[in-house]
């Protein structure tokens, strides 16, 4: 040990190089994993369409309910399900432009009634499995 309580300069240099190498290795591994291991735009789009289809089914079931309070609760639940599609639709739309229409339509649920959006949502999720 040196008089100041620090290791000699050579050991500090070796330690610094090892830390830098470890940091670079972690950074490279993280980049590799995120580049090839994450969900694709299609995966996000499928997730969004599952949420959309669930919401549409709930919406239609709510319309058949004869009790007004139950209908209101069921319609609110359908809207919650539709809003759950926002995040995956945004991820899909930002990764692949072909999903931007779905992203925009789902986002419009904040200002436009779900019943008005259903034809567009069905068209945008048609054939998505």
Characterization of this structure:
The chain folds into 2 domains: 1-38; 41-125, no CATH class. With 129 residues, the protein is mainly α. The longest helix is centred in the first third of the chain and has 28 residues, at 9-36. It has 6 helices and no strands. The chain is elongated and about 80 Å long. The chain has helices spanning 9-36, 41-64, 68-84, 86-95, 100-107, 114-125. Helix 2 packs antiparallel against helix 3 and helix 5 runs antiparallel to helix 6.
Task: Identify the notable features of this structure and list them briefly.
2 domains; 6 helices; mainly alpha; 129 residues; elongated
Largest sheet, if any?
Answer: none
Helices and strands: which structural class? Answer: mainly alpha
Approximately how much beta-strand content do the residues carry? under 5%
Proportion in helices: over 70%
Count of distinct structural domains? 2
Euclidean distance between termini CA atoms: 66 Å
List unreliable stretches of 5+ residues: 19-34
> How many whole angstroms does the radius of gyration measure?
25 Å
By DSSP, the count of extended strands is 0
Number of helices: 6
Order of helices and strands: HHHHHH
Mean pLDDT: 82
Q: Specify the overall morphology.
A: elongated
Brief synopsis:
This protein is mainly alpha-helical and about 130 residues long. The chain has helices at about 10-35, 40-65, 70-85, 85-95, 100-105, 115-125. The chain folds into 2 domains: about 1-40; about 40-125, no CATH class.
């Amino acid at each position: 040990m040196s008089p100041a309580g620090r290791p000699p300069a050579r050991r500090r240099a070796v330690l610094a190089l090892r830390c830098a190498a470890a940091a670079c290795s972690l950074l490279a591994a993280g980049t590799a994993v995120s580049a090839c291991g994450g969900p694709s735009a299609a995966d996000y789009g499928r997730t969004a369409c599952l949420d959309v289809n669930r919401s549409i089914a709930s919406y239609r079931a709510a319309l058949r309910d004869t009790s007004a309070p139950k209908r209101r609760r069921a319609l609110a639940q359908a809207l919650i399900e539709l809003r759950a599609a926002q995040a995956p639709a945004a991820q899909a739309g930002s990764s692949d432009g072909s999903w931007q229409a779905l992203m925009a339509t789902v986002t419009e649920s904040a200002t436009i009634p779900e019943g008005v959006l259903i034809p567009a949502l069905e068209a945008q999720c048609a054939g998505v499995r």
